[in-house]
Each structure stands twice: as C-alpha cells, then as structure tokens.
Design a protein that fits this description.
Elements lengths: L1 E9 L12 E7 L21 E2 L2 H5 L6 E5 L7 H14 L3 E6 L8 H4 L4 E7 L12 H5 L7 E6 L2 H14 L8 E6 L6 H11 L4 E2 L3 H5 L11
Parallel strand pairs: 2-4, 4-5, 5-6, 6-7, 7-8, 8-9
Antiparallel strand pairs: 1-2, 1-3
C-alpha cells in the first residue's frame, strides 16, 4: 500500500467511537483525488514522498485498539483497504475508523463488519472548491447510524448548503448518520458556528480540531513525519 505515514496520537475530531481525544494509531494513506482549498495534509495528496508497505508491515506498527485509516483519500486503494481491515479485525478485535471525502462510494468493507468499521465522511462544501465531486446520494445511502457525516464550514454559505443537504438526505422518521459541523481552523470562528447550529439544528454536534489546539506549531501533528 502507498503509505504517507503511520503514527500514534489522539483522535483530534469525531471518530464514531469514544470521540475526540481517544488514543489511536493512524494509517495515513498516500494519494487524493481532490484538492480542497483548505487542505491541511497536502503532503499526502500526490508526489513521490511515500512508503510502499505490505499489510504485514502495517500490522506490525499498530499499537492501539482504535485504528484510523485516513489520507489523502484511503478509498483510492479500495481493494487494499478491504484486505487491511480484514487483517486488523482477524488479528485482534479492534475498532476501525475510515475517514473519506465522500467522492468514492465505499463497498464491501462497510457491509461485512457493521459494528467495528465506521466511516467519517468529510463532506466538501462550496468553500473547498470540490463540492461537485461529492456523490452525496450514493454515499449517504450506504451510511448507518454508527457512521458520521462531517461538514467543514468556512462561512455562512457553507452552513446554509449543509442545512440543505440535511433536508435532502436525513428523514425525520429514520435514524441516519450523525451530523457534525467543523469550522475551518483559523478561518471560521467556532463561537459563531455554534450560534448558527443552535439556531438551526437540534441533533448535530460541533467539533473542533483538538490536535491543532494541542500542537499548533507543528500544524496539528505531534509525531507524524
């Protein structure tokens, strides 16, 4: 697999299990099909700087019971992610979070292990410049109550678009994935976003990027190369 880095840290944001602050081993896969305007992991988008690791080499570096597979966009390596998830679950009972951008529809991995593999879909809105790439309907129909949709908010327009998406895809009579609103770091005022959510939402969460608060000088990364 093309791997940008493997490191131990805390979950900086929502993860569908214990939430922000939970210790996790992160597997950051290399390569992304989007180029969001506010991306904070551009080093994992493209370019020559990655390691090619076997499944066993990755497994040898897992230290925590929670594993976060992120990117880049991990579902670009869909077949390999399937194999990796099965290996992780067979080797030891672990909880897996897959962070994806919503442009690729997840396949077998979301069906075969409904309780131990959970998705955080980082929905791109207008400010990202990539909203046209998101397959809202096809991705959302795969999600369950244990999964999470995170809207990254830079401005009021983003928030209004997110509310429209909520109206289109969340039925008031059917439980769906959790909704989380996350302000773009150092651009969107979190307090202002909280006020918007209080006025317009009843069941959503606001999530800050805890890792960026703890390690601001390192771009939110403690021991990731």
């Amino acid at each position: 697999m093309k791997v940008s880095s493997i490191f131990d840290s805390i979950s900086g944001e929502v993860n569908s299990y214990q939430g922000a602050g939970e210790l996790s081993t992160f597997i950051r896969l290399h390569g992304c099909n989007l180029k969001c305007s506010w991306c904070d992991t551009k080093y994992a988008q493209d370019g020559p700087y990655f390691d090619t690791l076997s499944i066993n080499e990755i497994m040898d570096r897992l230290n925590y019971s929670h594993v976060t597979i992120t990117g880049g966009e991990p579902l670009l390596q869909m077949t390999e992610v399937n194999i990796l998830c099965l290996a992780i679950l067979n080797e030891r009972r672990r909880n897996i979070t897959i962070e994806t951008n919503g442009s690729i529809v997840p396949k077998r991995i979301i069906i075969e292990h409904p309780t131990n593999i959970r998705f955080v879909v980082d929905c791109k809105l207008n400010s990202s410049g990539m909203m046209d790439m998101i397959k809202f309907e096809k991705v959302f129909e795969k999600l369950r109550v244990v999964d999470t949709v995170k809207f990254v908010i830079e401005n009021k327009n983003d928030f209004q678009v997110a509310l429209k998406i909520k109206e289109d895809f969340w039925s008031p009579n059917i439980l769906g994935p959790k909704r989380v609103y996350s302000p773009v770091y150092n651009i969107m005022d979190p307090a202002e976003l909280v006020e918007w959510v209080k006025e317009a939402e009843f069941e959503a969460m606001v999530s800050l990027q805890l890792h960026k608060i703890i390690w601001p000088q390192a771009g939110g990364r403690d021991n990731e190369r």
